[in-house]
């Protein structure tokens, strides 16, 4: 498999972690109580840890970017490959949990498969990540139930979040050209094969949480092609602020 | 209880403290001891969680992934400190809700240093280096304080804070070894954080109201002025290593005393900030109150869910 | 009125339109004429104010002060267009509140093009060039439409829009004459906005439900397909000047017809967006509803104040 | 007078316009109705227009920055000299109006005096601006009354805004070293002389608006020394985004 394909494949994984971590980072210190604040920060830390491993690998493959930070900070918006789901704002805690859960279920299935990648580095990263991701899924799934079942207000808010974010789920399974090539090379994960399990598992948890799956048959996509929502520009403006303002320095 | 009995208990109590025994929550203690500890421990806890805000301000903008993760972890540690300090406080018979209520209404204080804004990345370095540095000097003696839960919490807190302090110094060092612009940024941060850090050690002994009693209960082992001198003596050589200048023209080594002499502190500024009129008092309080109020439905839901799960279990069992 | 009398009025009415006379708000008009105009004018007004959002997204980030001021002025013009179109609509006996209510509930539509995100600065150029370009083609004929207030509003709107269109083209031109990266940004914007712009001219004639009646009332003077062809014929040479490529492999000049042939439009996407499932439908509607709801206390205050002032005057006078 | 002094003096004026314009720009399309949206955008346009004239002049005096945009976009946070008042957020419409009014009254008094500057360019800019600024003050003053007197809710919200922003008023009259030098050179305005008129006029309008002046004797400052509130970094991250990400290009 070509270097560029592998490089792009890695970005397609790691950008999700970066941007979701960034969103969780905004919340730090503003959670509904200390315990959730600490737990969500833990998740953010795991995500950034994984991001760093992926980007360190990507930097080795890149002709342009030399370090993990170059990869993280110096691309243009159209070059970030994360799915739209992870860039959605922290509208309220229900959105934070729904976004997390809808991503975690996918991420768990994905990382589970990635452990068997022929690429040793990716496989090693996945093997390290699987425990973390499993914890994320349990945490966010528990909160989906707590908020879904808890009170009438929390049920409504959680349903609102699911309704708002559902349109971004399908993109998780969209196979790009890079995905196809990577699967054929024995390195990548076939996302289409995860889809059924994903929607089945999510449906069960939502049912247990007394929440309804929106009937909308329409889904959004674009993130994997670098066509993001209008939120993304503002995320990047903050993320890249120092690196752009003081270029070529060590921090 | 008769007055005599109380007097007797008090003598036994004071003797235990004298012998360096730990007082535990279930032990008898004078009401004033309880109240003083609630006040001090909660103030300390509040400082931890308000202290998350100025540093949290740079999480999304940290200049490298390594720094971002370290900063996140640091702010998380502060949440953790808040958590065990609130727990220590709760053993004295006050609820976390009451403590938050005191914070939000302005009745309880928190460290004034967190009412200054973090306006450049170097401020994150300066806070670690100076603010955590001053905090450690304040807190190390508390590892031997008389109230058991507080002393044990402080052991853990101090360990983590000295890690944070080194990390902060390392951020400063990286800046000072970087470009001219980065070094200027570090100098600027020192200029802005130096005096507020000195104020962190509290008012001068003459103006301090709690000192004597606190010394007896080992809530304090040195006076504010002694602690301040210790901080200065320890920090100035570190500034020299960094190659930046402490913003005090009167600062100079005194061979005779073996300490640094230093200039006068602007106590008017100190009291302005303590009284709620610092640069960020309103923002900090708003952030805390917003987080608490916006989280009410979440906490309610968690409680309702737990109750529902409980009744299910009971129903199954019966 | 008897059916005969109505028939008679209708004939006079249609004859007036035939003679290119303007219908004014106080004139008699068929109920269907009134309803159709309320629908179309309000839809047009809604498009103006929803259209402020994607462009407004770049005001704080515009790359130069000149561009920032021009963009602000443009978005302000759109607010102005909204204002006179709502006023024109109000002359037909419907209130602005009702119209907003229809927009917020999803009953009234607005142009689907504004449900696409603006993700780079070039999108601001592309919107001016393509979206305003298509709008003008849609709207110029309306300067001669039969309903007076609408026709007069359109004269002013069209004048400003053609200014906007030139401004958008100039942004694209600057990018295309800039660095490789800027040119790529312009190409990327054209790629994303081309097809939605073609869709702006409405469904194909076969699928369009309002065309025939609208032609009679001069609410339409050409069919959607004719307008679309006109837009393409006018725009492709402009893309050539810019040196960027229209993203349609089937596009080519047809000597015989004297028009460009073009590829098939993805009408599924069109209907998805119209039905509320485009990339930004939810965000746009949320932004409008939030502005309206958050502004309620302000509007209430203004009204209460006006009433208080009025009573003061009355009290003084009496 | 030295070039640098004049340059810094101009920034001290123009940065207020830039940052306040930027805050108003965020609102465009989100106002309580079209009329106020249009009016506030007008004010923003006036402010940016004035900013451009000032910065064009500043660029002529600068050894580093060649164009108005260099001056506007390429400085670091600590180099922006605006007062803290103008960077305060659009918390709600009451804050927008209070911020505007508290600035406009000052700005009117200031621009009025600046007309008599010995510096012909500054005097010309001021002569052009005075009409605009007079309109701004009328607009925001009218709204202060409308919201103060309107309903109980609007009165409370307006009072909340005045209470929140009052601490930033005093800084408007702080004389920096650059101000002192400029006054001595016959170019600058003596801000201390405006103070009494300012607080008298504001007090009258607030009284008419049935609003109370906060008794807090403490005021914030720092903006004029480039020590801003934590809001400023985010304002600049957006403002400078494109110029920082794509340096040295023409737009």
UniProtKB/TrEMBL annotation, chains A, D:
InterPro entries: Aromatic_CoA_ox/epox, PaaA_PaaC, PaaC. One of its GO terms (cellular component) is cytosol. It is an enzyme of class 1 (oxidoreductase). Its EC number is 1.14.13.149. One of its GO terms (biological process) is phenylacetate catabolic process. NCBIfam families: PA_CoA_Oxy3. This is Phenylacetate-CoA oxygenase subunit PaaC. GO terms for molecular function: phenylacetyl-CoA 1,2-epoxidase activity. Keywords: Oxidoreductase.
UniProtKB/TrEMBL annotation, chains B, C:
One of its GO terms (biological process) is phenylacetate catabolic process. Its EC number is 1.14.13.149. One of its GO terms (molecular function) is phenylacetyl-CoA 1,2-epoxidase activity. The keyword Oxidoreductase applies. It is an enzyme of class 1 (oxidoreductase). InterPro entries: Aromatic_CoA_ox/epox (IPR052703), PaaA (IPR011881), PaaA_PaaC (IPR007814). The keyword Membrane does not apply. Keywords: Oxidoreductase. One of its GO terms (cellular component) is cytosol. It comes from the Bacteria. This is 1,2-phenylacetyl-CoA epoxidase subunit A. It comes from Halomarinibacterium sedimenti.
